[in-house]
Amino acid sequence: MNDTKSILFITVTFPPRLSVASLRLYNYAKLFHENGWKVHVITCDLESTNTTDEFDLSIFNMTEVKWKDPYRRINKIKNTTIKKIISKSLSFLISKNPIWLPDIRFKSWRENAIIQANEIVIKEKITHIYSTFSPISPHLLGKILKLKNRDLFWLAEYRDLCSFSASNNWLKKIFQNLHFKLEKNIIKESDLILTVSKGQQAIMEKRLGKRVHVLYNGCDFDSYRKYPEFSREFRIVYTGNYSKKFNDIELFFKSMKEFITMNKNSAQPISIIFVGTTPDRFIMSKIKHYALEKYCTFLKTMPNSQVKKNQKSASILIHFAWNDKKQKGILSGKIFEYISAQKPILSIGYDRELADLILPFGGKMLQKKNEILRYLKTAYDKPIVIKSFNNKSSEISKENQFEKLEKIIIK
């Protein structure tokens, strides 16, 4: 490859920040680096965030931009009740996880970042920029840079839909068509739009009238091989947080209660492990209601390497898809971690694309208690055998996903 190829990632989240979005961007930025690209990253500073030192950031040219986060002062309040009241009040004016314009929360970041981004583009002779949503601010910067530097190849990534996001409240749904005009105007200068699923690809291509390329979060099978598998107990593992509104947590606990009762005299103990899941009032009330306290363990947010270790130790990995049959293509990075661990996956909810994706890897998407119990019982009686894959052999590995992308963006 031509050594002059260089790319600037524009994102508000990147390691050492701990988040699923950070992992996606790190892994693809790393693949750019490993394939001969000079990689620059412009992101937010890391005050008041969970971080990890497990990633090699020395391979990138990092720029962390200072900004005034409206929520930063709130996070310093020790009284949880007062913090919650102020945070809820502020959320009427400023969305904490903005998918809506004008993206007030990151206004100061945009103002500071555009100056530094423009300097990097000129000084480092950047050939490609890669902006990622959400929030929308990175795309706003991408548009400005593209208009100033027409030779730049701009990749605009959507990890979720914006104007037509499935999580929009009723008020945003009323104005989503009007809002879309603003969104469409922002990314019309982009050379390639990326999204994370075929479902979202279909929606975006129809509305934008432009080609949209699917870049899955992708699997990294090889990174899981060093972690041991445990067999002393039947471990049901869930990683990350959940949505009280969109996930059927009730069905999971109802099924688990009956499954444990069915096997109470069996020799192999059963445990439910939540990794990085907030033990909030709702989930704890469900655990108490179904008398599952002694079976459930909550592990705090941890480095990704430890998350992988827990996933690899699972007898079954639990996933919650949306409980709305109309929603399509909501594929989180978590599902690709689960597939990479090559352990049986039980997804509760609805999504045809996701169901087809996990099927070759011993996964099932189910919506009824009897079906869930049957799947759990099958795995409990005899471990489900899953065909072995590696990063070279699987089409959905990050490595192969990147190879397809690179062929598109190099002209």
Question: What would your notes on this structure say?
Answer:
The protein contains 15 helices and 13 strands. The strands form 2 sheets. Strands 3-2-1-4-5-6-7 form a 7-stranded parallel β-sheet, with helices on both faces. The mean pLDDT is 90. It has 2 domains: 6-218 and 398-409, Rossmann fold; 221-381, Rossmann fold (3-Layer(aba) Sandwich). The chain has helices at 20-34, 72-75, 80-91, 107-123, 137-148, 170-174, 176-187, 198-208, 249-262, 281-289, 304-312, 333-341, 352-358, 369-381, 398-409; strands at residues 6-10, 38-44, 61-65, 128-133, 153-158, 192-195, 212-214, 234-239, 270-275, 296-299, 316-320, 345-348, 364-366. It is an alpha/beta fold.
Task: Considering the chains and any ligands shown, give keywords for the structure.
single chain, alpha/beta, Rossmann fold, 2 domains, seven-stranded parallel β-sheet, 39% helix, globular
Question: What's the topology here?
Answer:
Layout: E1 6-10, H1 20-34, E2 38-44, E3 61-65, H2 72-75, H3 80-91, H4 107-123, E4 128-133, H5 137-148, E5 153-158, H6 170-174, H7 176-187, E6 192-195, H8 198-208, E7 212-214, E8 234-239, H9 249-262, E9 270-275, H10 281-289, E10 296-299, H11 304-312, E11 316-320, H12 333-341, E12 345-348, H13 352-358, E13 364-366, H14 369-381, H15 398-409
Parallel strand pairs: 1-2, 1-4, 2-3, 4-5, 5-6, 6-7, 8-9, 8-11, 9-10, 11-12, 12-13
Helix pairs in contact: 4-5, 9-14
